């Protein structure tokens, strides 16, 4: 069942889906724009489900490209707290309204971004890495990442901040991020299905958009070859702030 949307709405979904592919292979922060566009066009819960399928397609492409670059030690340590966050996000998604959901996650992202940037500004590279290597801090970011990604597919900014603050270079960042979100999104899938989000309409939209994800991934590969680490970090932080402000207001 294909939803009856205006041509402009379909164009918006196409651009948002391109951003999914680009985000998974080059600029992770841009996926938050996809979240915003999908939520503006579709009801929040349906947009979350349709985008989850497209994110999984992007994850598979990114995992294939960056298979050898993931930091498996960090991933193994993050997963337990992420699972807790996903469970909490599922309950939050089920009980609260769309408006409360968006504003809550936007506020979380703004606070977390401000605190992360403050810590990065005041500390040395070594002390910052030691701080973010602590179990309590890792668990906090993992749980928040699981919560925000389940509630509104907005876990990317949380984990992107964590990886940047931990001193990951571009390929290590992209490889770890690819495997992290592939694992998280697979975990999310039965939760989304269990609360009735995977409707025929959602599946129809996702099926139409999958080829666009692949095109976006190709564009992303071209982009990542042309940017340096400093610009990479700045873009991700900037996109995190933009997405948080959008969700709040």
TrEMBL record:
Belongs to the 4-toluene sulfonate uptake permease (TSUP) (TC 2.A.102) family. The chain crosses the membrane at residues 12-42, 49-66, 78-96, 103-120, 140-165, 177-197, 203-224, 231-248. It is a multi-pass membrane protein. It is found in: Cell membrane. It comes from Flaviflexus ciconiae. It comes from the Bacteria. Signal peptide: none annotated. GO terms for cellular component: plasma membrane. InterPro entries: TM_pro_TauE-like, TSUP. Keywords: Cell membrane, Membrane, Transmembrane, Transmembrane helix, Transport. Its main location: membrane. This is Probable membrane transporter protein.
């Amino acid at each position: 069942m294909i939803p009856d949307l205006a041509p402009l709405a379909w164009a918006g979904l196409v651009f948002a889906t391109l951003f999914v592919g680009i985000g998974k292979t080059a600029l992770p922060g841009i996926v938050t724009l996809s979240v915003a566009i999908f939520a503006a066009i579709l009801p929040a819960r349906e947009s979350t489900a349709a985008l989850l399928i497209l994110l999984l397609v992007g994850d598979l492409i990114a995992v294939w490209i960056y298979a050898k670059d993931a930091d498996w030690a960090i991933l193994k340590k993050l997963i337990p707290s992420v699972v807790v966050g996903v469970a909490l996000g599922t309950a939050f998604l089920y009980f609260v309204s769309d408006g409360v959901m968006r504003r809550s996650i936007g506020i979380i992202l703004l606070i977390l971004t401000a605190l992360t940037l403050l810590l990065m500004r005041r500390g040395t590279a070594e002390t910052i890495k030691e701080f973010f290597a602590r179990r309590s801090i890792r668990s906090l970011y993992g749980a928040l990442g699981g919560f925000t990604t389940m509630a509104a597919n907005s876990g990317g900014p949380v984990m992107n901040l964590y990886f940047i603050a931990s001193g990951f270079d571009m390929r290590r960042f992209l490889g770890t991020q690819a495997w992290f979100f592939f694992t998280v999104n697979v975990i999310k899938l039965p939760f989304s299905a269990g609360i009735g989000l995977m409707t025929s309409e959602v599946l129809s939209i996702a099926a139409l958009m999958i080829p666009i994800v692949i095109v976006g991934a190709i564009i992303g590969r071209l982009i990542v070859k042309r940017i340096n680490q400093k610009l990479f970090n700045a873009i991700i932080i900037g996109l995190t702030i933009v997405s948080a402000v959008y969700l709040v207001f």
